[in-house]
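Shift notes (night). Ran GntR family transcriptional regulator while the centrifuge was going.
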Amino acid sequence: MTAPLPMPNDGVRQRQQQIAANIRALILSGDLMPGDKLPSTTELMAEYNVANQTVQRALNILKNEKFIESHKGKGIFVAARAPQVVRAGHYPVAPAQGQPYPWITDHANQGRRGSSDLISVGETPAPAQVAAAFGIDKGTAVVTRHQLLKLDGEPAELVWLYYPVEIARGTPLAEQKKFTGGSPRVLADLGFPQRGAIDQVGTRLATVEEFVALELPEDMPVLRTFRVVFTDDQRPVEVQVMVKAGQQYEVQYRLSENGD
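Came back to this:
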């Protein structure tokens, strides 16, 4: 972690926030790996030219974000769990009949337990971005499913799923209950198999609902993915809005030579 030159002061954030940001970046980049021991408080004080109190505040920020953990009598270590890498366009194919949604099984294969809580289901006015994706007027009724995905019992992602009423009304997509296989299975059974999707990914600070539901430790960015899912003839049949804690996830894209 020793830098050739002292870390500059950006003149805006408090010094402990800057130190936490520097160490956080090293963890996210893999320069500090899960299980690695951080330098001692004395070493960090010397490296960043700050007082002990500032170092402790920086470490507390990272502890609250679950990047580091204290082992009594041994020191402070990078948390054993690395940030989750999410592949864009992860589950375009419906699972076989009776099989769980691949988000669940994929995390199980990584030794983690995935689950979901259904928050609400109903017809709601289409937000502007959703309406544009479906080619309808803003405020037109759409079927909306809102859920919270969890990993090992902890909140991981808030999801909103939107459907045109002519597709979803009167189907399992509009029912206040979960179904096996997720929406790809239901859409396929209705005759709308997923053929592709387009993602827009951005960051912003969390809304109040997101802050509370995801149990964020402070006012930090969330990773927001806006996905439009298409069936045959490039017809949009589903819009997904997925919000994750920004410090816990990275999105992976695979680009081919032909740009697919």
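The first strand starts at residue 68 and ends at 71. The beta strands are 68-71, 75-78, 84-87, 114-125, 141-151, 154-164, 196-205, 221-230, 236-245, 249-252.
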